[in-house]
Amino acid sequence: MKKGYKQTELGEIPVDWEVRKLINTVNKSDKYSFIGGPFGSNLKSSDYTFKGIRVIQLQNIGEGKFNYDYTIYTSKEKADELIGSNIFPGDIIIAKMAEPVARACKIPNIEERFLMCSDGIRLSVDKNKYETDYIIYSINSKYFRKQAISCCTGTTRLRIGLVELRKLLIFIPPLKEQQKIADILSTVDEQIEQTDALIEKTKILKKGLMQKLLTKGIGHTEFKKTEIGEIPLEWEVRRLGEVSEIVMGQSPLSSSYNDKGEGIPFFQGKTEFGALNPVVKKWCSKPTKISNPKDILISVRAPVGDVNINNVKACIGRGLAAIRENNIIKYKYIFYLLLSRKLLFEKYCQGSTFTAIRTKDLKELKIPLPKIEEQCEISDILYTIDTKIEQCEAKKEKLQTLKKGLMQKLLTGKIRVKV
Length: 419
What we know:
Distance between the termini: 24 Å
Helix content: 25-40%
CATH class of the largest domain: Alpha Beta
Low-confidence stretches: none
């Protein structure tokens, strides 16, 4: 055993740390400090209103982050009736249901009080002994989640009850160390949130520019009305099949593809919507239809219309089509044009149970066509923005990996912080 550490039921921890049950962290002066939401029969959909006391749903409970997207309310009278299930800013809410089970976040300071749903659990900690953010990080830690899963019920969707949660164990360092650990992890979370905000802002910018550049172009002052809308006077309306080569995919024998890297990459169906490059997950030793680098891949079976830019020579299955550039139309312009028209593909879909785009539909698709030089200008602007988004997403992934590693080490005492 490492010097300065002791053995516990959860492994080695520093000698000045303790292992306590989650229930031992509660504020004992609050009789509702560890309690579940109301029974479903006590809060029905008929109790929901458009204003009043906000109800926190399962979807609002993120892993360390409150999700603001889902908003419903109930009356003040109903919230008073269920006073034991009220929850307040600064409290912790834990999810009984996956995914993942027993995730937790802090209640934001946007209302005076809230009402929990049936699958929420309120935890109000004793702030004289425990740092709230430290407890949240600990509940969302790998070692705590492992305990939670071990006592869950359910097969298709895990569920944990109040009785089981109160018995789960948590590592408790001295208060000042709790605060320091929480500060470090909060700093990383702030950087992740800032990166998220930048990604969202850049995506909004891209959406606006796509709408403008692909209909108005760059520097035009004269426009004309066409069957596909108003476009610059100098542009043409052409059919996609007239200005590009379209290769419909065909799936090879199932015995010819693998996940061991044998043969060439095999793209079978849906691509990652809006991605600059598809991710290789399968390979094919006896390819049928081939897509070349710079081809635009489009999903022609449900869900239809997802597009990306191919970056390798690959075999494509019947769920995809490859659209190839030439001296009339450039591949990046095709990419952004089809990306902006994803919703239009719905009307080309055939079949009641399995939608698909036919070869004819792709060939007959009418598109606006600027000169090559302007195509390049338009696509370069949008590609620069996409590159920025990818860089931000890569940064976010690195920060998330950093946070995961720090949580594993800081919350178990493997790395000590100076206080």
